[in-house]
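Below is how a single chain appears once it has passed through the pipeline. First comes the sequence as given, then the structure the pipeline wrote out for it. We keep one example in the README because the format questions we get most often are answered faster by looking than by reading.
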Amino acid sequence: GQAFVAGSVDISSKTTAADKKSVYENVIKTALEEDGNSPLISRKAVTVDGRAWEEIVSKEGKSGSSINRLLQTDSHIYVIAVASRTGTPTADTAKKYFDSFELTK
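Resulting structure:
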């Protein structure tokens, strides 16, 4: 009962900083909070290979949770997540999945 997700949102290089922040928060609201129906449990900064990701833990279904990492660059918002509807994904599972990604730009 676990799910693994990776995705990205393209952002125009002409987008203002304020609009980028708005898009980022909209991604969180829509994808992680499921339009406000799944409350966020925690948010913290995580540095991986010199990049500042945000790690967000949120409720998933009635008794589960998801661990999500988001990174905003000038042209993208990257989202990677591991989720379980029946509990919390283990730290080892999340680490193995998150460590399988490498940004090349």
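Residues 36 and 101 are 28 Å apart (CA to CA).

See the next section for the split statistics.
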